[in-house]
């Protein structure tokens, strides 16, 4: 039996970004003893990187806005593959979630009449993004962090212990979701089909390397995305697909894993910062994209489905910034997938910048003072990292892996993972809400809306269980401990071959995903990717680390590799299967969007082989097609039939 | 740079305290961090020596129509008569020392408690700290929590007092536009020196942090006080240059006094423009 | 352009440690954190370091480079001469854990001691009205990324461990200033005078405004001029200004 530190809580939230903290606040306010586990320090989550704003149809700047318009924009942005009920809940509840932040101390930028100011963003019909300059994510995370502290202060006043009801376990990694297991008496390995309920989580403290178990009937996954599987990404090291993998390993399916958003504007130079985000607000506030010929090339890339909504000439586009009611919006503000592909094409056609991007210019569009006021952190970022003064010269930008649309298959209203009672997921780790492509600003609102719902449902679920709580069998804990510590023993037995360096494996994985399953995809390349992933997976079994367990980054990476490999396989398999181009999935060999494919979600699940001890050569991920839920009639009625025909099949519409 | 593996000695404190990373060097800065506190200390010392000498000298501070800023207002009977100037004999004849000592306490107090000068002499003279991330030599530190340094909180009263003093110096500059006979229309190099000095003194006085607070900083809702908000903005712009103004006004006071001294003691005649 | 740089990196833990020498490749446009990562990947796989966004937005990779508190991700290698030795140590005001990682729990403890925002009574969510000019001052302080470089450099606690109990540090005094300047904070209704409490409960008097916090702030927040000094002045309003004291007495009498 493994010696582990043991805690017990009602609800465990894995991840302390926007969704995780919002879920924890909700669970604690419903009376649950709640634990939050995060890999970084409290308050450092990737949410701080969000720049543009929170989309919510408050109508403060343009009173025509409403949840229906927001819903329409979201569905269009996701090419109608969105889980429509999630999109509906999201559009309806986002304003309340934003206003609630103000009661916790958030300070958004204001309109003339003292309300929350809202800015334009790609794909949003009206100015809709509540923001604080270009550091909205920081404001969001700090506000939630401070709300948590304020709840802890209440608990302190009552009990004398800040952590009596809400504790943050910072710098800890969860490696397994534990389940009770009816068949454990037979000695059989834990099986996803046994229908076991969530019993807690297993993990380790990064600082000390100590192993721990938290017994809890309800676990909320809020771990964010998977960007670290790619070489050029705007994501931080934390984004290793932990929640995706934890869900898979616990027996929950993932959907839409082929859809990855490549943000059109990441920095391309210097190499060490390649991929770091340049906020979309640069374009929302007037920035334009030009190729090396000086041409504003986006006018040539407006797809048919968007022809009526976007300007055809520079004059018309420029008029929109001041008079949006009588002008169509500039094509720089097309949804991200369109812009990213356009940039990619320009560079491929030889019209790129010296460092392989295109020019994003705001210096000739706004006075220097205005740029510094509206885009302070962009100004700062370019000045400090690239020695470029964006008030005087153009930036060089190119696409960067930014956001995973796919994720845990959840019930829209409760955020409960399908198939695993007690498991919930919210934020980027949950799939469905954004369909095949997410609109800018919809991420932060997604975190809040579904973070709250996940916390609420987890609390209800946990209290509904009463006194009978699932317990994880000891052998599951032993297996989890052995798995976590294996990198220290690698290379010990001669027949296994030499130990592998986790950093090398990680770099190779990133290269494979970037080159073969990147922004533009081809069938044969993805088949090749799957072969190489299988080899990497085999080598990863032998990954070994030096040193001891105390704050050992090599070990941490070795553990995270398992998750990145699993998730990468999901991405590659799903992308190979979907023979069309839609949103964040572009097939060179299948360039068109196919209405037939809209009716299908691709579902990834762990195969039975993957459960066995010797599963190195077999595919770990199984794929099946599942029809999407038909969109409710009153929601369909929000669109013109003509528009719907671009996305939905005739039979769907005639029903 | 030497580093040791044994973490502490019993007397170890600060960056050498137990628990901190075991680095024996008290700091690892490689730049010339000592330059700025050194320059500060030397410059302040020079001024203090000069000003002390001049304040006790009790002579050569008036040469019609110019008065040294160190001696205005002149409040004792032993003042040199100033043609229409601020020689108000409030203190009567019992005061036998230099009349400068009576008034210098106000600008001295203002500058001594000034938020910029505090930084300058805490760093330059007291090495608390000598520079950022350079360990200070003191065993204990209580800052401005108790006497005497808690008295630094009186800065705003010295600011209030600095206003009439600056007003009187302004009056002196106005008088400097009269010639020896009291006729208006004079301007000499001395006029220019005093004019520059008073401009810098006003700029320094108004750029004071207490002024910034009183004029608008204390408000919670700028939107309800648009005029004070605008004033706060202007004072804030000056306040951003408080260090520059503190030094330039200090130098200009010294230069103005020196100029009057040189003219009054007959070293040279004031060049006249018209 | 590539050259080989000489690095000294502190390796060790609570039991001791030393500065180790490394020769490492440096490419054009790189920052110190890139070099630390290269060391991890090639020479010191278990070199402990905190980092996260690598874009100066999260405040994780705080360390001391050539003796100055800095974010490693925002310290470009081009600021050093190619033949200059670059020394990287952990933050020296906090207990070390391992290598470049320190125990920053001091800051989280202090954060808990600052009373939270008090929402105004009777104003429902969605009805908050604030003017841009009124939120701007607090917004400046909310740019803080909590890298704790100001806490690290402040000599009050860096050089005097014994002051840690009484002194909240620049970051959290700034937090009090932020709340005191928040247009709608209703702490006063609960009898909490934030500025006075800053002096009485959070050690504002320890600050001798020597401005190192402002010097090291990677967000260029004017901590001293815009937060600490105004907070001192506000405390003086409450505690040492007879005019203000008298005024508030009379106002209270009238009510």
UniProtKB/TrEMBL annotation, chain A:
Gene3D superfamilies listed in its UniProt record: FAD/NAD(P)-binding domain, Fumarate reductase/succinate dehydrogenase flavoprotein-like, C-terminal domain, Succinate dehydrogenase/fumarate reductase flavoprotein, catalytic domain
The residue ranges of the FAD-dependent oxidoreductase 2 FAD-binding domain are: 10-444
Q: Which InterPro entries match?
A: FAD-dep_OxRdtase_2_FAD-bd, FAD/NAD-bd_sf, Fum_R/Succ_DH_flav-like_C_sf, Fum_Rdtase/Succ_DH_flav-like_C, SdhA/FrdA/AprA, Succ_DH/fumarate_Rdtase_cat_sf
Taxonomic superkingdom: Bacteria
Q: Which residues form the active site?
A: 336 (proton acceptor)
Q: Does the keyword Cytoplasm apply?
A: no
Q: Which NCBIfam families match?
A: PRK07803.1 (NF005866)
Q: What is this protein called?
A: Succinate dehydrogenase flavoprotein subunit
Organism, scientific name: Actinacidiphila cocklensis
From TrEMBL, chain B:
Membrane-spanning intervals of the chain: 33-53, 94-117, 157-177, 183-204, 244-264
**Which keywords fit this entry according to its UniProt record?**
Membrane, Transmembrane, Transmembrane helix
Q: What is this protein called?
A: Succinate dehydrogenase (Membrane anchor subunit) (Succinic dehydrogenase)
- This chain's source organism reads Actinacidiphila cocklensis
TrEMBL record, chain C:
Database matches in Pfam families: Fer2_3 (PF13085), Fer4_8 (PF13183)
- The residue ranges crossing the membrane are none
Domain named 2Fe-2S ferredoxin-type is located at 5-92
Any one GO CC term of this protein is: plasma membrane
Could you tell me which pathway this protein works in? Carbohydrate metabolism; tricarboxylic acid cycle
Q: Which family does it belong to?
A: Belongs to the succinate dehydrogenase/fumarate reductase iron-sulfur protein family.
Q: What is this protein called?
A: Succinate dehydrogenase iron-sulfur protein
Which organism encodes this protein? Actinacidiphila cocklensis
């Amino acid at each position: 039996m493994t010696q582990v530190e043991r805690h017990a809580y009602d609800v465990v939230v894995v991840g302390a970004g926007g969704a995780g903290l919002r879920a924890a606040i909700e669970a604690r306010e419903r009376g649950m003893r709640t634990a939050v586990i995060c890999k970084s320090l409290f308050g450092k989550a990737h949410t701080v990187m969000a720049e543009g704003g929170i989309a919510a149809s408050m109508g403060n700047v343009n009173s025509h806005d409403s949840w229906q318009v927001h819903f329409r924009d979201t569905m269009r942005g996701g090419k109608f593959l969105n889980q429509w009920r999630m999109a509906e809940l999201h559009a309806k509840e986002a304003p309340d979630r934003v206003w609630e932040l103000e009661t916790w101390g958030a300070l958004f930028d204001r309109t003339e009449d003292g309300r929350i100011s809202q800015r334009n963003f790609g794909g949003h019909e009206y100015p809709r993004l509540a923001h604080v300059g270009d550091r909205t994510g920081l404001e969001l995370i700090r506000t939630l962090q401070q709300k948590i502290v304020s709840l802890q202060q209440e608990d302190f006043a009552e009990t004398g212990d800040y952590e009596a009801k809400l504790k943050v376990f910072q710098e800890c990694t969860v490696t397994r979701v534990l389940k009770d297991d009816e068949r454990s008496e037979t000695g059989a390995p834990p099986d996803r089909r046994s229908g076991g309920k969530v019993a807690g989580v297993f993990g380790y403290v990064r600082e000390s390397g100590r192993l721990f178990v938290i017994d809890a009937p309800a676990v909320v996954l809020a771990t964010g995305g998977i960007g670290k599987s790619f070489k050029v990404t705007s994501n931080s090291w934390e984004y290793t697909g932990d929640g995706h993998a934890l869900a898979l390993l616990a027996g929950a399916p993932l959907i839409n894993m082929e859809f990855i958003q490549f943000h059109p504007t990441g920095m391309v130079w210097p190499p060490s910062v390649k991929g770091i985000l340049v906020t979309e607000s640069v374009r929302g506030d007037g920035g334009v994209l030009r190729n090396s010929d000086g041409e504003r090339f986006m006018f040539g890339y407006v797809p048919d489905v968007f022809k009526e909504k976007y300007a055809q000439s520079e004059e018309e586009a420029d008029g929109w910034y001041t008079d949006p009611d009588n002008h169509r919006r500039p094509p720089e503000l097309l949804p991200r997938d369109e812009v990213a592909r356009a940039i990619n094409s320009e560079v491929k056609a030889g019209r790129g910048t010296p460092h392989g991007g295109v020019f994003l210019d705001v210096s000739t569009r706004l006075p220097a003072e205005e740029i510094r006021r509206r885009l302070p952190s962009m100004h700062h970022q370019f000045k400090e990292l690239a020695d470029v003064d964006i008030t005087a010269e153009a930036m060089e930008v190119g696409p960067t892996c930014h956001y995973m649309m796919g994720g845990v298959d959840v019930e829209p209203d409760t955020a409960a993972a399908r198939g695993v009672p007690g498991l919930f997921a919210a934020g980027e780790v949950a799939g469905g809400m954004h369909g095949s492509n997410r609109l800018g600003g919809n991420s932060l609102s997604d975190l809040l809306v579904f973070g709250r719902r996940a916390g609420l449902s987890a609390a209800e679920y946990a209290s509904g269980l009463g006194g009978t709580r699932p317990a994880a069998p000891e052998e599951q804990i032993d297996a989890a401990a052995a798995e976590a510590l294996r990198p220290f023993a690698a290379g010990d037995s001669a027949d296994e071959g030499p130990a592998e360096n986790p950093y090398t494996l990680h770099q190779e994985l990133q290269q494979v995903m970037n080159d073969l399953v990147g922004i533009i995809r081809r069938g044969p390349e993805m088949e090749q990717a799957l072969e190489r992933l299988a080899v990497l997976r085999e080598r990863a079994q032998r990954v070994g680390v030096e040193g001891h367990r105390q704050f050992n980054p090599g070990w941490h990476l070795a553990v995270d590799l398992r998750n990145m490999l699993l998730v990468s396989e999901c991405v590659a398999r799903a992308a190979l299967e979907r023979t069309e181009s839609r949103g964040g999935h572009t097939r060179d060999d299948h360039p068109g969007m196919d209405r037939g494919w809209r009716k299908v979600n691709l579902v990834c699940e762990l195969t039975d082989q993957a459960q066995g001890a010797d599963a190195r050569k077999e595919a770990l991920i199984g794929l099946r097609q599942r029809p999407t839920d038909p969109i409710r009639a009153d929601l369909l009625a929000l669109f013109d039939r003509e528009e719907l025909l671009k996305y939905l099949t005739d039979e769907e519409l005639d029903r | 740079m030497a580093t040791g593996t044994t973490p502490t000695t019993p007397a170890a404190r600060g960056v050498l305290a137990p628990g901190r990373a075991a680095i024996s060097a008290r700091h690892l800065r490689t730049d010339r961090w000592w330059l700025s506190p050194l320059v500060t200390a030397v410059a302040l010392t020079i001024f203090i020596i000069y000003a002390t000498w001049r304040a006790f000298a009790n002579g050569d501070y008036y040469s019609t129509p110019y008065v040294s800023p160190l001696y205005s207002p002149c409040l004792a009977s032993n003042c040199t008569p100033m043609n229409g100037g601020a020689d108000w004999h409030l203190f009567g004849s019992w005061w036998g020392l230099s009349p400068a000592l009576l008034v210098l306490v106000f600008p001295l107090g203002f500058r001594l408690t000034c938020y910029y000068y505090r930084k300058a002499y805490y760093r330059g003279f007291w090495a608390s700290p000598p520079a950022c991330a350079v360990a200070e030599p003191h065993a204990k530190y209580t800052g401005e929590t108790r006497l005497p340094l808690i008295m630094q909180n009186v800065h705003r009263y010295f600011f209030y007092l600095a206003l009439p003093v600056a007003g009187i110096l302004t009056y002196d500059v106005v008088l400097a536009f009269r010639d020896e006979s009291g006729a208006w229309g004079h301007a000499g190099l001395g006029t220019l020196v005093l004019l520059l000095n008073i401009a810098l003194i006003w700029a320094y006085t108004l750029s004071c942090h207490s002024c910034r607070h009183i004029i608008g900083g204390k408000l919670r809702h700028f939107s309800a006080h648009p005029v004070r908000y605008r004033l706060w903005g202007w004072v804030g712009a000056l306040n951003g240059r408080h260090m520059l103004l503190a030094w330039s006004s200090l130098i200009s006071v010294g230069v103005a006094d020196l100029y009057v001294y040189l003219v009054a003691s007959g070293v040279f005649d004031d060049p006249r423009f018209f | 352009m590539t050259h080989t740089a000489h690095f000294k990196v502190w390796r060790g833990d609570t039991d001791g440690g030393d500065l180790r020498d490394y020769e490492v490749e440096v490419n054009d446009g790189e920052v110190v954190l890139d070099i630390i990562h290269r060391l991890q990947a090639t020479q010191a796989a278990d070199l402990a370091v905190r980092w996260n966004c690598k874009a100066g937005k999260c405040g994780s990779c705080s360390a001391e480079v050539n003796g100055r508190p800095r974010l490693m991700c925002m310290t470009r290698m081009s600021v050093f001469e190619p033949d200059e030795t670059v020394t990287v140590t952990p933050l020296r005001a906090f207990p070390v854990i391992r290598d470049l990682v320190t125990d920053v729990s001091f800051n989280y403890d202090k954060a808990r001691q600052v009373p939270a925002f008090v929402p105004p009574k009777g104003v429902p969510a969605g009805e908050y009205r604030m003017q841009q000019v009124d939120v701007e001052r607090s917004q400046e302080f909310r740019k803080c990324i909590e890298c704790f470089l100001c806490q690290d450099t402040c000599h009050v606690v860096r050089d005097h461990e014994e002051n840690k109990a009484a002194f909240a540090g620049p970051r959290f005094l700034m937090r009090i200033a932020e709340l005191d300047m928040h247009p709608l904070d209703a702490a006063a209704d609960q009898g909490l005078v934030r500025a006075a409490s800053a002096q009485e409960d959070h050690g504002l008097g320890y600050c001798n405004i020597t401005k190192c916090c402002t010097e090291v702030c990677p967000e260029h927040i004017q901590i001293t001029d815009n937060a600490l000094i105004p907070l001192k002045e506000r405390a003086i309003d409450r505690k040492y200004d007879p005019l203000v004291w008298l005024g508030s007495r009379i106002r209270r009498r009238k009510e």
